[in-house]
Amino acid sequence: MQLVVARIGRAHGIKGEVTVEVRTDEPELRLGPGAVLATEPASTGPLTIETGRVHSGRLLLRFAGVSDRTAAEALRNTLLIAEVDPEDMPEDPDEYYDHQLMDLDVVLADGTEVGRITEITHLPSQDLFIVERPDGSEVMIPFVEEIVTEIDLVEQRAVIDPPPGLIDDNAVVAAPTDGADADSSEDDSPGGDDTAGDGPDGAAKGGST
Questions:
Q1: 3 near 81, Cβ under 8 Å?
Q2: Is the peptide bond before 90 cis (omega within 30 degrees of 0)?
Q3: What is the pTM of this model?
Q4: Which of 36, 72, 124, 179 has its CA 20 to 30 A from that of 195?
Q5: From edge to edge, which strands make up the β-sheet containing 127-132?
Q6: Rounded to 5°, angle at Cα 159 from 153 and 163
Q7: Which is it for strands 17-22 and 2-12: parallel, antiparallel or unpaired?
């Protein structure tokens, strides 16, 4: 199956490098030199990774045939897509690929229905489940072991023990995000924001933050 493993950000320097928003916990496997990736839009690819390095906390890639800033900037916001065996599992038993978690039913320990996972957001500090509730509203559930107490892939459910205020009327409702805006604050300078994060190839992990 095909999974998004990264999104190309802005150009870095003048030699064709680009910043990359990583959406996999296995960048050394999915985004290593020699990897050939499909793209969205498809007309941009396939792209072959020529070099990769970490600079000021973010991953920089250069692709074969992309040798200057103009060509690199033309790739901005392109999604990089890898072919992944759907039977593959992360090495860490506490990690899951995003496609394994999507559409799981979210319930309380007593079985009370909370909703269904419709999206997983990867932040530098933790992962979030975007859960659609029965009334159509959305709530964000941090994927940490103190809150998500069980993932049962056989029963297709996630059991949560939410703190007060997380899923009641005072819960924080998820707002739509525009991926195209995510690079607006990026900076090529060494002190710029880190754009690297994990993502829909996933390997989301439940744990303490």
A1: yes
A2: no
A3: 0.53
A4: 36
A5: 138-142, 127-132, 113-122, 105-108, 157-160, 148-152
A6: 150
A7: antiparallel
